[in-house]
Amino acid sequence: MSKITFYLVSFYFFLATSFLSAYDATPPCFKEIERTFFNTRTILLALQYFQNDYSFQGAWDPFQRALVGKNSLISGRMRTYAKKMKPSPLEKPFDHKGAVNLLRVVTREFFMEAMKKYQPVIERDWDATFNYIFDTELERINACIAK
Known about the structure:
The protein is mainly alpha-helical.
C-alpha cells in the first residue's frame, strides 16, 4: 500500500509542478504598465518635440486618443505573441529582458498603426517619436523590474 501511495504522491507532484511552470508569471506592476503604457502627457510631449513645418497638429488629438485606446489591447497581444515563443518570457520564470523586448514590439506595432492612420508627424520622425515615448516609459519599466 505504501508503494502505491508513493507513486500517487510522486505523480501528483509531477503534475502540479508541470502546471505551475506554465503559468503567466508577469508581475502586477508590469501588467499595470501594459494597461497604461500610452498616456496623453508623454504622447503630446513626443509630438511637440518632433513637430516641424510638416506636422499636422490637427491630428494630434485623435492620434493620442487612438493610442491611449490601444492600452486595453497590449496585454492580449503580448500573451498571443508570448505563447508562440519558446520559452515564453511571461511564464515562470519571468524573463524581464524578454518581456521588455516583447513590450517594445507590441507597443511599436500599435504606434505605427496609429501613425499610418493619422500621420501627426512626418514619416521620417516616426521611429524617433516612438523611441521617445518608449524611453520615457523605461523609468517605470525599470522601477518595476527592480522590485
